[in-house]
Amino acid sequence: MYGSAKAGLDMLTKCAALEQVGENPASIVAVDPGMMDTSMQATAREAGIGLSDYFAAQKLQGKLKETDTVAKEIISLLGKVKTGEIVRL
User: Fold this and answer.
1) In sequence order, which residues have a C-beta less than 8 Å from that of residue 87 and are 6 or more positions away?
2) Which of 87, 85, 44 is closest to 64 using CA atoms?
3) Taking the C-alpha atoms of 63, 67, 69 and 72 in order, what is their torsion angle to the nearest 10 degrees?
4) Which residues does residue 36 pair with via DSSP β-bridges, in sequence order?
5) Which SS3 state, helix, strand or coil, does residue 26 take?
6) Residue 85's pLDDT band (boundaries 50, 70, 90)?
7) pLDDT attached to residue 39
8) Residues 40-67: tens digit of each pLDDT
């Protein structure tokens, strides 16, 4: 369900951007930040679910991005991306 929701958001971004043309268009962009070190990640690592070991390994290998770093990356993109883009960080 999580992956389906993300794909749906990407499609919504593309479709809404196509509709937002004219006199007062809105700029619509989706951001895929990749895996971040969040409380949801911590919960997934400790939950004993099928991917818990994978998530724990990603943390141990330093592959999770810090949320403040991702926020800075997003801010640096302001005004640099086209409407309808799916930005993968």
Assistant:
1) 29, 30, 31, 32, 77, 81
2) 44
3) 150
4) 65
5) coil
6) very high
7) 94
8) 999 999 998 889 999 999 999 999 999 9
Write the single-letter amino acid at 56: A
**pLDDT for residue 23 is more than 80:** no
Token readout for 51 is: 């991917």
3-state secondary structure of 1: coil
Q: Which sign does the torsion angle of CA 74, 89, 55, 4 carry?
A: positive
Distance between CA 68 and CA 44 in Å, rounded? 20
Q: State the residue for tokens 């070190």.
A: 37
User: What are the start-end ranges of the H helices in 1-89?
Assistant: 2-19, 39-46, 52-60, 67-77
